[in-house]
Every structure is written in structure tokens, then in C-alpha cells.
Amino acid sequence: MGVTTRCGIEDGAFRITLARPEVLNAIDARMLTEIRAAVAEAERDPRARVIVVGSASDRAFSAGIDIAYVKDLTGFEAREVGRELHRTFLALRTSEKPVIAAIDGLCLGAGLELAVSCDVCIATDRSRFGLPNINRGIPAIVEAAILPAAIGIQGAREMALTGEFWDAAKAERRGLLHAVVPAEALAAEVDLWRARLAAKSPQALATQKEIIHKWMTTDLEAAIDFSINTVVLNFATRDQREGMASFLEKRPTAREGSGGRAGPPPEPGRE
Questions:
Q1: Domain 202-257 belongs to what topology?
Q2: Which of 34, 47, 81, 160 pairs with 138 at a CA distance of 20 to 30 A?
Q3: Comparing C-alpha atoms, which of 94, 9, 13 is closest to residue 262?
Q4: Interior/surface letters 22-33, b for 16+ CB within 10 angstroms, e for the rest
């Protein structure tokens, strides 16, 4: 249990709850440290199939950086804050386990960068998204660099240059969100996605996430070469052999046959 976050395991999901509702989950140094520690804990916990990042507030996922945290910084100190933000968001992007962002309310600035660093973004229909930094004379930086890949260069320009908010319908239409639901249906929708992901091979998911990261961060030929070489690892796993066998035998996989509930992970060295 952190000061600015709450963590726990439920139904194979390691839940990280942003818990500064009094400041709309504004991100400060302690929260960044706690999020990274929570992701590392989830990585170590064999019960955790999926990571879910949510909020203790029904007003905001996160309203962005805590102005009190950064307002008196020198230029070099501000650069270190940018690096801390990147370390935290990179931990989410490169986690071997799929990460779901459960968004209800405001998702702005660094909060939006946190969300877009997750693998799946699910939001309520009352949520709003934006990069209002520009209204305070501060350009969008850090993982805002992912936005052109997520919503296209023109969408990223619109967000970054105007500072105007998008509603959830527009965010979904532009490709930022995977699903939009009423507030009362958010938990059920998140659980649906959790079950879908938890039913997949953990090794295959981890490999796929690594490949997608290479797609995002290297040139085309290097990314393709990496994916070809990396898939070799999956051909040595029990999940891959079961997946191929079930296809040929025209039956569900063992995981699908369990009703979408993933069983316990294999023992080390027993793949």
C-alpha cells in the first residue's frame, strides 16, 4: 500500500489505483515512484496475469502533473522530472504483462501520457481527454510522443496546439480508446478485457508486447527482423504446442476450455 496509490490482486488482475482524489490524482514524485514499484511487484507476482490502472476518484483518472511539484524547478530539475515521467511510463509500456487503463473523468496532460502508455484504454462516456499544457505556456513532451501513432499526426497536432478537450466519443473515434461505456458499466467492461487477456498465453503476450515495442521504436526492417527471431522463443513453450494442437484437432485450447479463466502458471523450467 502506497501513499498515493493502492495495490492489490483480484481475479488475476494486479490493480494499481491512483489515490490522490483531493487533487484529481495529480502526478507528483511519490506517485511516479509508487507506480514503478507497483509494476515491478506485478511482474514478480505469478498470480498477476494483467495489470489494471484505475482511479479512486470518479472525477478524474489523472488531471496531469502536480503544478506544486514542478512550479519552482530549475531547467535541469525540470528535465529530471521529464525523465522520471518517462521511466514510469516506459515501465508500463515494456511490462511483460498487458496493462489496462480504466478511465473515468479527466485524463489530461501527464495523465493522458500515462493512459496511452497502457495497452488497452477503456473509458466512461463522461471522460475527457486533452493536453492543456499549452494553455500555461508549456509544450507537451515525454510520452505524448506516442500520440501520433495512436491518433495520427493531425489529431496529435490538434490536441497539442489547441489544448482543447476531447470527449470520450471523439477519443474513441480517433483511435485513442478501445471501448466507451456508461460509468456504471466500467468495472464490468474492464473485467471483460481482463478475462480476454488472461486467457492468452503469458509467454505469447510478453513476446507480443516486446515486438510491438520494437514496431514503435525501431525502423521497419529492424522491427521485422526482431519479430522473426523472437518468435523462436515461443516455439519452445507448452502454450504454443497446445495452441497448434488444438487448431489441428478442431477443439478449444486448454485455456479457452477453462471458460476464459487462466490456470496457474507453469513451474519454472517445466515449459
A1: Lyase 2-enoyl-coa Hydratase; Chain  A, domain 2 (1.10.12)
A2: 34
A3: 13
A4: ebbbbbbeebbb
DSSP secondary structure, 180-201, as one string: EE-GGGHHHHHHHHHHHHHTS-
Q: How far is CA 267 from the centre of its chain?
A: 27
Nearest CA to 140 out of 131, 148, 149 is that of 131
Single pTM value for the model: 0.87
Dump pLDDT digits (tens) for 114-166: 999 999 999 999 999 999 999 988 899 999 999 999 999 999 999 999 999 99
Class of the 5-198 domain? Answer: alpha beta
Contact 75, 95 (CB under 8 A): no
- According to the model, what pLDDT value does residue 242 have? 74
**CA dihedral for 124, 192, 62, 26, sign (positive or negative):** positive
The domain spans of the chain are 5-198, 202-257
Question: Looking at residue 257, what is its pLDDT?
Answer: 66
Q: How many helices (H) and strands (E) in the chain?
A: 11, 10
> Which segments of the chain have a pLDDT < 70?
1, 233, 235-236, 239-241, 243-244, 255-271
Phi-psi region of 259 (alpha: psi -120 to 50; beta: other; left: phi over 0): left
Is 73:35 a contact under the CB 8 Å cutoff? no
Q: Is the dihedral of CA 136, 127, 194, 246 positive or negative?
A: negative
